[in-house]
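quick q for whoever's on today - can somebody do inverse folding on this one?? i tried earlier but teh output was garbage lol. tokens:
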């Protein structure tokens, strides 16, 4: 099998990461205004771009399975840990609201020249270290409540894969239709900035 499907090393990671970064930057995710505005339900670009990426990836994956290129048994499907997902989701959500970035967009923003993204990445590193230090104390909470073991969404909903893809596509189209009138270009003076960016500008 040829690159990139047969290459799981650093080269494929760099190439795919570079492509992903370019897509993020072109979508406007190099500024924290996009993420902050999404969390305030004022700009749905983040949802539309990421949800579209999920659907495209899912269609590609199912197509590769149908062609016999990829076997479902060879894919890693993580189990759901309710408390770990809840605590982690809240923590990441707070970080995105304060910083205006997620880990991926912060890297794209840093290489676009935004200094506030560097502070965000430092925060990610410090948070990872703190979690590692506290893990012996909180590890049992993270894995306290386990959900379905390695189930995919079609298995969980007891639906065929095509039906789930159709349902997700309908959600994306519906959100796009309902938010189309709200997607008016905002002037730079009205852009929604994250608290982290505001604090850096005022310092």
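ok took a stab at it. sequence:
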């Amino acid at each position: 099998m040829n690159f990139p499907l047969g290459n799981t090393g650093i080269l494929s990671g760099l190439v795919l990461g570079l492509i992903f970064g370019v897509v993020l930057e072109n979508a406007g995710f190099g500024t924290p205004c996009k993420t902050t505005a999404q969390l305030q339900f004022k700009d749905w670009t983040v949802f539309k771009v990421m949800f579209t990426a999920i659907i495209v990836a899912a269609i590609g994956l199912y197509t590769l399975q149908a062609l016999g290129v990829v076997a479902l048994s060879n894919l890693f499907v993580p189990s759901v840990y309710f408390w770990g997902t809840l605590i982690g989701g809240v923590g990441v959500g707070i970080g995105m609201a304060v910083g205006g970035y997620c880990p991926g967009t912060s890297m794209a923003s840093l290489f676009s020249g935004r200094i506030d993204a560097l502070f965000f990445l430092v925060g990610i590193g410090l948070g990872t270290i703190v979690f590692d230090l506290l893990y012996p104390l909180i590890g049992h909470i993270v894995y306290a409540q386990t959900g379905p073991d390695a189930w995919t969404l079609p298995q969980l909903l007891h639906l065929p894969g095509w039906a789930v893809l159709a349902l997700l596509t309908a959600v994306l189209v519906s959100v796009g239709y309902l938010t189309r009138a709200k997607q008016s270009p905002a002037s730079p003076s009205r852009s929604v900035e994250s608290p982290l960016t505001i604090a850096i500008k005022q310092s």
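fwiw The mean pLDDT is 81. also DSSP finds nine helices and no strands in the chain. so keep that in mind when u check it
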